[in-house]
Structure formats: C-alpha cells, structure tokens
Design goal:
alpha+beta; Porin; 2 domains; 3 helices; 18% helix; 43% strand; extended
Amino acid sequence: MSIVNRIKKYKVIILTALITAALSSFLTYVLKPAEIKVPHPYTSELLGNNSFGCTSLIGSWIIKGDGKIESSDVKAELSKGTDKLAIEIENDKLYFLTSAALNAGGARGDAFSILKNTDSQLVAVHNGLNGPSSDLNIITVNKKLGLGIWSKITPEYFVTNTPQVQSYYLECR
C-alpha cells in the first residue's frame, strides 16, 4: 500500500490527532498554571535600621485538598500580596507583627530568634511548633535591596491535619 493510500485510509485518525494536538496546545496555553508578575519595586537599603515595615508583593499557599479532610488533591494558590508587616530588631530578637495581628489588638509581634544579622543579610526563625498554631516561621531579608521572603510552615494545618505552607515575597523600607 502506498503512502498516499495509507494517508487516505487513516485520514480520520490523523485529522483527529492533529485537532487533538492543536486543542491540547491551545488549552495548555490558555489554562496554564497561575503566574503573577508585579513590577520590580523601588528598593532601598535597610543598613543600620532596627525597625522597618514590609509589604507583601506576592503570596503563595499550598495545602492538601482545599482545606477538606476527605480530599485527595493538593491545592496551590498564588495571589498578589495584601499583608503589611512591622519588624523590629532588639539585640538577638526580631519582633514581627502582621497587620492582621495589629487589627486583632496585638501591640508587639512574635519574638523570632535572629540566626544571621550582617550588613547585607537578616535571617530569623520563630519556632511555634509547640504553640497553638503549631508552625515554623522563617524570614530572610536582603538588607542591601530591601527585599525579603517570609515562609510559614505548618506540619498539621488545623483544618485538615496535613502539612501546609505559605510564602510571601516582601518589599521592606
């Protein structure tokens, strides 16, 4: 059988495969995973500052099953940041207060242990694993750029009893 005859014989299958590939490519392009871009912020050095404020530019959240215990899915969300944070450094402690905590009546945030505090880097951790929220918080700040990351990790999220993580990209001034 010649190639032309084979193409004629299988044209429905070939046409279906081409349409499926085109449709799949189109849907992959349209339904691609969430991506958010924000303009690179104006940054400023934090050298010598013992207190500064940070704004969340982008946030992410990964949790099992939309917060439902019976779900077998893992869900990831990406969104523009909305939270604001106040950071105060006192000796070997970093005090970290979110706007949500402030609105709830908090006056001073959780005490983080500073692991590194140089002219260019600030790294602190808060071990709340034995507390009511059972979480581990890490904040890192590039002091020369005024940019940082805050991550909150929970081994047993109170709704699903499964691990979850939240991370935020910060602009600090």
